[in-house]
Amino acid sequence: MGNREAIGLQCIKLVFNHVKLLLCTNLHKGISIGLGPDGELRYPSYRHPATTNHIHGVGEFQCYDRNMLSHLKQHADPFGNPLGGLSGPHDAPSYDQAPNSNNFVKEHGGSWETPYGDFFLSRYSNQLISHGDRLLSLASSIFNNVPVKVSGKVPLVHSWYKNPVPPF
């Protein structure tokens, strides 16, 4: 876990503890944790224009900060593809592209079906799942003796609806 994420989790813990006090004094039955201000667990992430509710594209993989690149590199070397840890997929969609407008998520024969695609998607999705697990585990540990149900909200990427290539 990177230092930035540790600081973020400490801030979230403070907020959860404050909410716990409020829940103890009221008749709430559950707490729903949004997993990211604009969907840290949205997969792939996309920009949501403030002026419209229309989603313009499928989004991009959020894998270009030094922590994620380091994680990819660490796992790419034993996989036998040291170049695979230098960036995300070179042929993945950009923010404003339709799901089938590039080679990575092409319906038939897209590079998401290659060994590298499988490697990348496995590592990327496992990182997202681990992040969500850490947040929900933290919430569960704080609210464990409060009679509320803890749940997480995972955003939906509407551009992928009915697309034969899954949003991984």
Automatic annotation (TrEMBL):
<dbReference type="InterPro" id="IPR001554">
    <property type="entry name" value="Glyco_hydro_14"/>
</dbReference>
<dbReference type="InterPro" id="IPR017853">
    <property type="entry name" value="GH"/>
</dbReference>
<comment type="similarity">
    <text>Belongs to the glycosyl hydrolase 14 family.</text>
</comment>
<dbReference type="GO" id="GO:0016161">
    <property type="term" value="F:beta-amylase activity"/>
</dbReference>
<keyword id="KW-0326">Glycosidase</keyword>
<keyword id="KW-0119">Carbohydrate metabolism</keyword>
<protein>
    <recommendedName>
        <fullName>Beta-amylase</fullName>
        <ecNumber>3.2.1.2</ecNumber>
    </recommendedName>
</protein>
<keyword id="KW-0378">Hydrolase</keyword>
<feature type="region of interest" description="Disordered">
    <location>
        <begin position="80"/>
        <end position="99"/>
    </location>
</feature>
<dbReference type="GO" id="GO:0000272">
    <property type="term" value="P:polysaccharide catabolic process"/>
</dbReference>
<dbReference type="Pfam" id="PF01373">
    <property type="entry name" value="Glyco_hydro_14"/>
</dbReference>
<keyword id="KW-0624">Polysaccharide degradation</keyword>
